[in-house]
C-alpha cells in the first residue's frame, strides 16, 4: 500500500507511476486521496485542540476546587462535559475518514521502478538475457502431455491428468513412480541450493487468514483467484510468499538481523479463473502445484542489490538443470499489482516450441511492508519501513515439462540432468 504522505508530497510522480501501470483515472484517484487526507488531518487537528482544551479545563477545575471556588468549578465541569461530547464526535468522524481513506488507498497498485519499460501487454516486455542452447529434437519428438503416456511402463502415464480429474477435477494431476520421485528430487535440489545461498528453510502453514492475504496484497485484489474455505474464513495460499512474509507482520526487525532470507517449499493453489486454450494444456497451468519460494526483507538502500542477487540465484538453478532460458523485464501494464520491478524467467519448451514462464522475481519496495507494519530502526534510531522481495526458485510444473520434452531421446526414454540424479536416484525414465 502506498504511503499517504508520499502521495501528498509527490502528486505528479504518483500519477505518472499509476499511469505507467495503466491504472484507470489515476489523477482523480490521487486527488481523492489527497482530499480525504486533508480532511482527516484537519479533524485530527481539531480533535487535538479539543483534547488539549479538555486537559486544561481539568487542571482549572482542580485549581478552583483547591481554592474553594465550588460554583466556578461546577460551571467548568459543564464545559468539560461539552468538550468530551465534542471529542467523541470528532473521534468518530476521524475514524470514518480513516476508513474511507484506507478503502481508496488499497485500490492503488504499487508504483513502478524507473527502470520499468513502458507498455501494456506481455508483447511489450523487454528481454534482458537469453542463455543456453535450444535442443534439436529427433523426428517424432512429443510435447509432454503425449510423452508421459509412453513413460513409466506399467505405471504409464507417469503424470495422470484423468485420474486427478476423477479425484478432484481438472488441473489437479497425479504424479506416479519416477515422476513423483523427480518432483521430490527437484524440491530437495531447490531447497538445498537455497540453503547454500544463505536462505533459512521455513515450513509455513498453507492456509492463511484474511489479514495475511491483505498484508501481502492478495486481498482485496485477487480474492477471485484464491480458494476460500468459507466456514473458517481461511484461504489456500497461492504462493509461499504469503505466509513467509507474514511471519514479520507487526514486527520491528533489528538492523543486525538484516537481510532476512527465507526459503520455503509449499503446494500452491490458484483457481486460474478465465484460463483456457492450448497454452494451459498439460502441466502448463494447474490449480495445484509445488513451488520453492525465496523471500528477502532488506533495507531500502540494499533492496535492488538483493533483487539482482535473487535473479542470479534463479539463473544458477536453470543453468545447473541445463535448461535454455530467458529473462524479461516486465513492462508497466504486465506487472503485478504489488510489484515495483519484476523479472520473469522463461524456459524453452522444445516439445511445444515455445517459452514457458517458470519464475517471477520481484521487489515490492515498501508496498507490502506498509500493510505489514514491517519496520526497523535505522542508524539514527528512526523507525523506517523495510523493503520486501520474493521469487520462485523454482515452480515445478513447467520445469518438469521442459525437462521431459528437452531431454527425450530417440529410443523414447528421457535423460535426467546430472545435478538431479543424486536426489532422485536414477538417470533415465524408461
Please explain how this structure is put together.
The structure is a single chain. 40% of the residues lie in helices and 20% in strands. With 430 residues, the protein is α+β, with helices and mostly antiparallel strands. It has two domains: 4-105, Serine-tRNA synthetase, tRNA binding domain (Helix Hairpins); 122-429, BirA Bifunctional Protein, domain 2 (2-Layer Sandwich), CATH 3.30.930. The strands form five sheets. Strands 1-11-12-13-16-10-9-4 form an eight-stranded mixed beta sheet. Strands 5-7-6 form a three-stranded antiparallel beta sheet. Helix 2 (11-20) packs across helix 3 (26-66) and helix 3 (26-66) runs antiparallel to helix 4 (70-105). The longest helix is centred in the first third of the chain and has 41 residues, at 26-66. It is elongated. It starts with a helix and ends with a strand. The model has no long low-confidence stretch (mean pLDDT 95).
